[in-house]
């Protein structure tokens, strides 16, 4: 498909050209406006454009570069607001609403917890989040509203990001005890990864296919058999904002669910189980977190109650 013949692709390339010519991607009126327009352009789900099937080299190169620009801009945005929140004299977590995408994180956190609950019988006691960044909102939302007794270990390669993130929870009497921060490259994290019931891999860890797969392969090597891996992906035009994770990228894992939101939650959610565990009738037990065999009728019925059935894709092997 030639992008000139499609108005949406033409608009995305137009915005890409403007964004790539910015002197800085740090928060400003111009930066916020351009990225806001980009997200609005990529959100609609009624388009039949398959981004992976686009052969126009200009569009493919633009998408690859745009994902990296979006990741860089997101990092600056989180750093900016984490610094502001950390300057409050009282508990910074009381002011999370000032972050412009806080409501999206609330929705995404609830979505991921609900999807995870369909495949587990017990709340995980120990969770790892790889690529938590300067504003670990997913960890915070999960810890505050969904995993009230779970310890969450946050991993990030950037010491400055971890310092800002740690400052956000340091004055919270609960989360300061249950959120722990580690400064390391995910590829250097080996010993200890088998202690986690659930491992989250952030969308911004691995901004291209090769590095994303490399991170997944590393986790597959060191995670405990039967543990759950939760990843962020993208679908449709949203793949101009974030990398796509395919089932084929998850060698050594059984894909339990791929869910594509149709609202303003940008990321798709992928849930997979590390293979190699001793699978009984009730699933594989890792600590207190039990991974359940996929019950499609139950999952589809429940998701349909939330108006989500049409977006849920089950990809699974028989677990008997």
UniProtKB/TrEMBL annotation:
Coiled coil: none annotated. Belongs to the nicotianamine synthase (NAS)-like family. It comes from the Eukaryota. Its EC number is 2.5.1.43. This is Nicotianamine synthase. InterPro entries: Nicotian_synth, SAM-dependent_MTases_sf. Keywords: S-adenosyl-L-methionine, Transferase. It catalyses: 3 S-adenosyl-L-methionine = nicotianamine + 3 S-methyl-5'-thioadenosine + 3 H(+). It is an enzyme of class 2 (transferase). The lineage of its organism: Eukaryota, Viridiplantae, Streptophyta, Embryophyta, Tracheophyta. Pfam families: NAS (PF03059). PROSITE patterns: NAS. Synthesizes nicotianamine, a polyamine which serves as a sensor for the physiological iron status within the plant, and/or might be involved in the transport of iron.
